[in-house]
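Q: Is it fine to ask for two folds in a single conversation?
A: Yes, each is treated on its own. Send the first.
Q: Here.
A: Result:
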Amino acid sequence: MEHSSDKQALYKHEVLREWLIAEAADTDDERLRITLESIGDLHAAIACVVRSYLEDLTLVAALGIRLDEMQSRLARLEARADEKRVLVTSVMEQAEIKKLTEPDFTLTMRRTLPPLIVTDESAVPAAFWIVQAPILDTPGLTSALRCGQAIPGAKLGSGHPVISVRSN
């Protein structure tokens, strides 16, 4: 004979399982949603979501590596393009060519405005300095509050639960 508390726990688990299914329906992970609908046990449903979470973390890591590789390739291509721009500029300058017209592009060379070179910041008059508002030292403020110091205008918020998953 089932106790009332057992029935309540079973009902709560069913409600939470349905909630997991509903939340999964809002994601773009169709496979997870379909799998969750076929699972009748809350623990198994949670395990299913965690496995999907671990797969997502693996994809995130793999994409991060790929992005790093692509960023390196981008940097190489940018450097190569810049080297070609410098080469063409140098050759055109030495040959005193101001304009080159081709069927697919027109190339012109001109001098830029002289750049600013600050040789001694302390000698620059105050009129050329921009005063900025102070910036809050949030790491220092957090550290002081965690050490028990009372600071007007600031307090520590409530922590929130997090999960930790170790894969075997």
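Q: Second one now.
A: Result:
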Amino acid sequence: MLDDYRILSGNEFFSHAQDEDWVLENQKFQTGTGVFMQLKNNTARTVKKVFDEFTTGDEYGFTKTVVPIKLAQYGNEQLISRSQAKRIMARVDRFKVVILDIDNVEAIGQAFADEVFRVFAVQHPNIEIAMLACKQERSADGPAGACEQTGVKGRLEGEATLM
């Protein structure tokens, strides 16, 4: 529903502004939590449109989630380990559809991919896993910034390169 929001808690700062997410860590710990939200008055977005993005079928609960994989990376670290995959997949078992947003992720490692697309998929057979790949450059098959969702239940497909 919100156009922009920011959360400052302890030594971490999370920001979502105009479809761009990022996390910062500060060396200095501060007590408390601050939440800042902005909602533009003149928008074509409706509550129904927002809710429909995160529901499946005729259900009214939030059954779909989007996980921005880029936020799991610290600095230039590569996503290669099972522990990184487990951290990303923590608590997504509460949803029926999990969309992994791999925008700006250059590569993932074999152990990472195996943990998500084989181990997690076998342990949670009723959860659909999909990848969302966004292309920033203009291509012949779509406009700049076009996104493609790929169903990957138990196998790896999409734009990320397997290391």
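Q: Anything structural to flag on that second result?
A: Two points. Residues 110-123 form the longest helix (14 residues). DSSP finds three helices and eight strands in the chain.
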